[in-house]
Amino acid sequence: MTRRQALLMRGAHFVWRFTRGMTLGVRGAAIDAENRVCLVRHTYMDGWHLPGGGVEPGETALEAIDREFREEAEIVLDPGAAPALHGFYFNRRASRRDHVVLYVARAFTVRAEKRPDREIAAARFFPLDALPPDTTPATRARLAEITDGLPPAIDW
Description:
GO terms for molecular function: hydrolase activity. This is NUDIX domain-containing protein. By secondary structure, this protein is an alpha+beta fold. It is 27% helix and 31% strand. The protein has one domain (3-148): Nucleoside Triphosphate Pyrophosphohydrolase.
């Protein structure tokens, strides 16, 4: 993360300290039949990440991951096949108030190729055994938990 990105994130968390108290986010591992996972590259942060974002007031975590998959990767979850809850993490690197819920989705469709926008520079599927070199350490750790059957860590 560049210094500018770190300052922007610190500023956002400073504002959220007074407006939200605790922050809750979701991330999703969308794994297709070919054992590939969808990763996104943000315009404001380095590396490849699992799609996700904040849970909005009045929204459930499941509703949030459904929305984030659509917004960030053009992924539509299959009705009646809710993603599996994998873990609930403390994201102390972001702030002392940030928590992340991770879901694993295996029943979905990709409605179109994701076009770059203000937030997402790219969204692509990668083989789980051939992730891009700049996949973030947290993303690699979460995917290892999923593929190796490891229990979720405490920290993101």
